[in-house]
Specification:
354 residues
């Protein structure tokens, strides 16, 4: 016997697939079959299975333009919100995103990109228009969600994610004929916000080996900073961006020069430098400024006055607020929003000593 659908199920089905909704879908070029496919992808038991379904369908439809409509961007964005990611699922979706953006760039005849080798597949010119255009705010949202997953399961992917942002968030529309680097005031403000927010997000420690992974955070930040300098005029590094850079530098292990300076300090407090040999007199306090301390100096030179967060970070770089020496400490420092809620910022530092 054929199963008879329940009355509630039928009512819900008819309420969703009414004439108005079906007309809207048809106007966008989709139908019920597309909804079924989106549901099949999003309701997969695991993120890895969903990623495999999405990439397999996209590749099939890309190689055969008559196989169906392209998978819309929101499906990828929804998948990036799942909590059960693995490094393999993240890699699959990251490759898919590179492929999508690479083909989007091909609308302007640019065949560059990390996934550029995939562009020659398919049915020629028609496939250049297979993927719908992603706006820069949508790309930024996708990058932020990729970054959140990378911090959990694959910190090394942060470099590729940062490269994706610097390549495709440029302030010019994909279909615009305006000259690269020529922005309105509003576009410049948006780019400044997005790039500095990226520096701040890259400062959040990874869940997987946070200290070991700090080198990936640094490389990703360097990629962002390099791109900010290439804009004409160069984008401003805000206080938020400066703090992001300082936070990452504090999580890195000491350089040989920083270790040598630590060995020259006295065992008493404050730990001033001891001149054990005659040549030690030629070594001044400038040798005791760590990379994080240099970043704090650049922030001050940019015109940002020290606040409780900067005072707390300065203690970890090896110098107190009265310019007396302290012990340089490798640490994961909390975000500034917490430091403004109390009067003793030192109590809010989550220190991890080597």
């Amino acid at each position: 016997m054929r199963a008879v659908p329940k009355a509630g199920t039928t009512t819900s089905f008819l309420r969703v697939f009414n004439d108005e909704n079906l007309a809207w879908l048809s106007g966008k070029g989709y139908d019920i079959r597309d909804l079924t496919i989106w549901d099949w992808i999003l309701t997969a038991e695991s993120a890895e299975q969903a990623a495999i379904r999405l990439t397999a369908l996209s590749q099939h439809r890309h190689s055969n333009i008559t196989a169906g409509n392209p998978i819309p961007t929101f499906v990828l964005l929804f998948l990036l919100r799942r909590q059960d990611f693995s490094s393999r699922s993240l890699r699959l979706l990251l490759e898919h995103a590179w492929d999508r953006l690479s083909h989007q760039r091909s609308l302007r005849g640019d065949a560059e990109g990390s996934a550029g080798s995939l562009q020659n597949k398919g049915n020629g010119v028609a496939n250049q228009f297979f993927y719908s255009e992603m706006s820069e705010p949508t790309i930024f949202l996708m990058v932020v969600r990729f970054l959140r997953q990378a911090r959990i399961v694959w910190p090394a992917a942060m470099v590729s994610i940062s490269a994706m942002m610097t390549k495709y968030i440029t302030g010019t529309s994909i279909q615009s004929d305006s000259s690269p680097g020529v922005f309105t005031e509003q576009t410049s403000a948006r780019l400044t916000f997005q790039y500095n927010k990226m520096l701040s997000l890259l400062a959040l420690p990874s869940s997987l080996n946070p200290f070991t992974s700090a080198i990936h955070h640094q490389r990703a930040q360097f990629c962002v900073l390099k791109r900010m300098r290439e804009f004409q005029p160069a984008l401003i590094v805000t206080r938020e961006g400066c703090r992001g850079v300082v936070s990452v530098q504090l999580a890195l292990k000491k350089t040989p020069r920083e270790r040598e300076w630590a060995r020259r300090k006295a065992l008493s407090w404050p730990p001033w430098k001891e001149e054990r040999l005659g040549i030690d007199s030629d070594i001044g306090v400038e040798h005791g400024i760590s990379r994080a301390g240099e970043a704090l100096l650049r922030e001050r030179e940019a015109g940002y006055a020290a606040r409780p967060w900067e005072d707390a970070a300065r203690l970890l770089t090896g110098w107190d607020t009265d310019y007396s020496p302290t012990i340089q400490t490798r640490a994961l420092i909390k975000r500034a929003t917490f430091l403004y809620q109390v009067h003793a910022p030192r109590e809010l530092l989550r220190l991890h000593h080597n």
